Write the structure tokens for this entry.
Amino acid sequence: MPLPRSLFCRDAPQDHDLTVTGGKWPAGLTGELVISAPHPDTFDAPHPFFGEGMMYRLSLAAGSHGAAPGTFAWRQSTIASPSARLRAARPDVFTATMVGVQSPFGPVNAANTAPVPWGDRLFATWDAGRPTEVDPLTFAYLGEVGHRSQWINLEVGPQPVLPRVMSTAHPVIDPDRNVMWTVNHSWGSLHVVRWDGEGPIERWPIAGASIPQSVHTISQTRDWLIVADCAYKVEPQVLSGGSRTQPANPSGPVHLIRKADLDRTPPGHDVPCQMFELAPETNHYYATYDDTDGIAILFEHTENADIAMTQKAGDIDALGRPCDPALRGLYGFPMAPDRTTYLVFDPDRGTTVHRAEQHDPERLWSRQLNAIDWSTEGRTAPTMHHTVHQGFRPEAITQEMLALYRDRVDPSLLPNGETPPLLVTSSMPDLAVIGSWELGQDDFPSSPIFVPRDPGADANKSRYSGSDPGGHDGWVVLPVMNDGGFRVEVYDASAIGAGPVATASKPGMIVPFALHAAWMPRAVSTAGDGHSRLSFSDELERVGELPGDLADVARQVADDLRHGVPLGT
Ligand SMILES: [Fe+2]
């Protein structure tokens, strides 16, 4: 059975009310599932990852946010950012490429990869753009983080009003400082960025750091920040439509940066780091916040996977079959079984202890996204890590990818045919698989989230924490794409292997490809919360570089944003 062909369905997303169609919805399940995704309008691009950002939100309590009693509100919207508005006004001057959407205004900030909650505030992020604040209730665009002049702009091509800012889709919120930590990199150099929620960002160059490829994640402990190179390779010829000639790097540097060094150094001045080389390659990693016994990091390696490559016309899959045009644009799935490691770095001695590893070539393939207890308490002492694995999917691997990685792929590890998707629970810190549930071969499980059982019950704990934090006491909520209809499954986080306790769906509802998801305890409007935010009107200093008609469009977009004019009116 194949991957859903509706993954790249271009029908306009709609609001829906879901009903429970299986099991019993847990009474204590509350809050909001928020999901970032590229808008399907842009799925005909060479890489569907780069469509304008949109958000979905599912209210986990029945009868809220306009849903009838007993039903669950599924709501969605494009983020009406300056990028999205400019493109809507002049679609003829925008060009989709393998590395993003370009225009005479500058590159689109796609803001489509991960929802990042910060208290009641919500940000949509992307690796090649500034974090974009969104109203979690209305999805209205509120502003980007930091004026462009405070970031390093990667000036490749014209960018009079839309700068290219290389950052990360996974910033972190520091619970002790109440700031956002993220990065800004340019031509291999690394800068750490701190933002206190309003006004200018602060930025420090990291002495001796190098980013050979890109950055997708920043992680933190109480005293340290961790920034690793990401296995997303962009070769120069790809910018002009050429083919890849090299696989992603098989290893990369991991930088450990002491927060105290940043605290005491004026922005703009060098801050030191310690560097370790890490293999295999990786995109996502999560440090345990408590660093009393060293800097312990869970690495979700992405060995021999290439999400920078996509299927195109004429491609042949791993089994020698022509690739289905319905999957055109699908990124390259792993050509090696999943490997997850838990490493402990000692920055004083310069040593690394390999604490645990998970590797099951028979069952665990194509790990993509995870559910984590993101509360401060949950990150301080995690108990469980939940992951989605798509299974070995030969139709998502092309012969071109296999040829590029031929020196690294071990054919003896490739299963005979496809294997099913799994939802897996691993115990922390030993990474033992303590529960798993097999989904249908025609399912495409998307990003799961962890929802604590009783958030806010203990006044001594943070808002996002339940009374027994860590990732075991609560639910895992899993959106599942399927050509027969979209559904949301709810699992007891401590008993994934028992299967879903409840399923919600609506007949005929299709949800296409989406990226990361997150949980918020509630969705309230933040537009009037008193925070000052960057206005697009303040970023028109270079509007004079545009031809007159496009300059008029940019000014009109700034006016529309200032007056809250909805997109498309
Ligand atoms: Fe990610």
